[in-house]
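Batch manifest, entry 17 of 40.
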Amino acid sequence: IATPIGNLEDITLRALRKLKEIEICAAEDTRKSRKLFNFYQINTKLISYNKESERSKLTYFVNKLREGKDIGLISDAGTPLISDPGFLLIKEVSKLGIKISPIPGVSSLTSSVSVSNLPVDKFTFFGFPPRKGKSRSLFLKEVEKSSYSSIFFESGKRIEKLLEDLLRFDAERHIFLGREITKLHESFYKGRLKDVLETLRISEDHLKGEFVVIFQGRNKATSTQEMSEEDRRIIQILMRRLPNNQALSIGSEILEIKKNSIYKQLLD
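Output type: structure tokens
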């Protein structure tokens, strides 16, 4: 069941009815869910179900479903299972042939897409980025090379560092940041990456809350004009190991940059 991401009025009539009809509601954080339940006078039993208890409470919920009880699953905010716990339960229940019904509603992902002013007919959703190490490097590289918009979440404490990492690839590419969506201090930042980062740095409250980030995909037409430092490093590695012509052909395919453009930039 999808629940509000901030403003408590952002919930469907069907969701409210179902939350009152079900016998048990599995909630990511019962303290947060209790505010919603109190606001709408919902008396259904709340049971904590988060990442730490996802496995230990799995049997409990499955047994209740086998007994014929109706159970609801909600996250802290928005639509469950989008970077939230619950996958193990849905997977196990599916095996048993128990009916699962989505009660659709608000999502920070789709809410951001609708106002981002970026091409999102195709996009890749990554959830929260890895914080460090090789996995973060691979994540950044995948985002930088994607021809489609990339969408991910990030906390206010780490958003500046994330933008600085992306800045190394392409300062001119456009980005959208949505903070505290539907809440009192809702803020949107749009424009070139370097401009958004500068605006964010002088904002007094940007470290509060969580962000939805939409990063524009790589434009193939413009990507043929100039390689990044990382692109050059890849070509250099290939040319040390392969004949030049073969290295340029493979590099062109990897980087999605025309072979002639790579050759010209190396000469320059």
